Fold:
Amino acid sequence: MYRSIMIHLSFLDKLLDLSDKIIFALKQDKIEEALFLVNNRERLIGIIKILEKKIIRSFKDNNSKDVIISEVFQAWKLDTETSAKKVFHLDQLSFEYLSEIKKTTKEKISEIFVLNKFHSAYLTNSFKF
Structure:
């Protein structure tokens, strides 16, 4: 159980790191890189969920009345909750950056559409057969 807890906490640290890297990529408009990181992050979240279930099952199977095991388990839960709150905050920042990118992209597409309409109207009227 202790080894699983240590691995789980190290994966949570990696999750926070990936979340930071996603935000950094979004700030630099590197959408492809951010998408690659998001896919890796999703796989990591799946592994973290499996480890969490394993740790909880192990705690229930072992002597949950053992004081040391209970203290370790409670400390792990607290660390997990703290990391989850940090990840949630970073996710909110990512969504804000994605919303801004979406807004900018919509504006660019609108400008291109208007310019294409203008050019097609101009070209149609200038050539008479």
The chain has three helices and no strands.
